[in-house]
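Quick one:
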Amino acid sequence: MHASASSEPARRGLRFRDELRDFTHFVIRPTLGPRLAPRRLGGQVAADWLSGFGSGRLLKWALFLWAINLIFLGPIAVAAATASGAEHRLNLQAIPWLQALLWAPIVEELVFRYSLRRIGHALWLVPVATGIMLAGPGTTSILILLTVLLICWSPWYGPGRMPSAQRSGGRSWSLRLRYRALFPWVFHAASLAFAGVHLHNFNLQQTGLWLLPLLVLPQWLTGLVLGWMRVRRGIGAAMLLHGLFNGGPLLLVWLLLRLAPEMAM
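Output:
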């Protein structure tokens, strides 16, 4: 009890550079704990969805991602696209604000990161959420998504964890330990899959296989940060950061179209 009580103020007082250091260590050796966000809200479901936002902390992470992608990874992706003739599918005359700011953050986080800490949901959630993602926003997809969210928010089913050893005996504890051992592989596989899905954003033409990873380097780094955010702070914080990250480039494109349309062309 005393160790937990003494560590909580330290977690509340983490600076951004402390979180950045924790992220670096996490990427090298992913673990399921500890949480960095204060757990003041009642119930595991509420804490997972509603805590971890911080005062301006998510914006700092978004600024970090924008800077790294603009200075380092973005130019590499642009050079790879230019060399291969790949073209981005974004229609500058119809920027998909709602899809980028709301739909993609919710659906993609459900597909790639929600089950990292809710492994009991993975068998049904990942296939259903993947189907929603592939179908795109539509009446049926939205209704299914709302149903999925209601299930995830359910206080009876929401935690979605494997039963504890005290309730289900040694087999459950064995499964838990096995998942903890496999978690680094699961985490990095989810980050790579997240990046790979974004190849759909390009008309690839005759792009060589060796150039494909370079096209989605920004999404790969973003997936690593979002995975860390999901595990350390919660799924709600990951979704919000995802939306912030998507919004920055779209806002820049929108401003460019308004202020210097000839440059955009």
